[in-house]
Request: fold
Amino acid sequence: DAGVTQSPTHLIKTRGQQVTLRCSPISGHKSVSWYQQVLGQGPQFIFQYYEKEERGRGNFPDRFSARQFPNYSSELNVNALLLGDSALYLCASSRDRSGNTIYFGEGSWLTVV
Amino acid sequence: QKEVEQDPGPLSVPEGAIVSLNCTYSNSAFQYFMWYRQYSRKGPELLMYTYSSGNKEDGRFTAQVDKSSKYISLFIRDSQPSDSATYLCARLGEGAQKLVFGQGTRLTINP
Reply:
């Protein structure tokens, strides 16, 4: 079975632009979470979605938004990009809302110039 | 105080050595703890998870939780150069499926 898949793998954006990142969870997994990982740090929680509803939000500004689709795939949107948004954006999936086996994708590398 | 604290290293050991990686956490209410391995420019790979206190073994890896001292450990026996990576500890909180990670320890196994 395929793991968590994310696209695009790398992208470069200019300050002030908007970006959309995409994620497909492992087949059968209904929960998707998003994390931001800056260089030299552990991932930080942004959002969790389960059954298309937001179930948790981390300490990120309103410029960050996400949604989950009926097929459980998800998108993360970031508006008005800042240089500090440059990071690896990770998507994770698990079978249910409180699952303790959480699997990550390879991430999307975002560079803001 | 951070919720999960981890020495960033770097840690360098010879091949075949036993490696001990450690984290501390601040809230004794935490129940689930995970260890992830992350190779350079890749996503984190789930190695092990443990519930509450005690040990869990999987091949060359042993995860240990000591709730009395709020200490999480990962031991790697017979370390191999392929084990060279950053190791991330994390706790899973109640409610939302929110993992809180330590900073990660960068480990190098020298042939």
User: Anything to note?
Assistant: Chain B touches chain A at residues 4, 6, 8, 32, 34, 36, 41-46, 49, 51, 88, 90, 92, 95-104 (CB under 8 Å). The two ends of chain B are 37 Å apart (CA to CA). The mean pLDDT of chain B is 91.
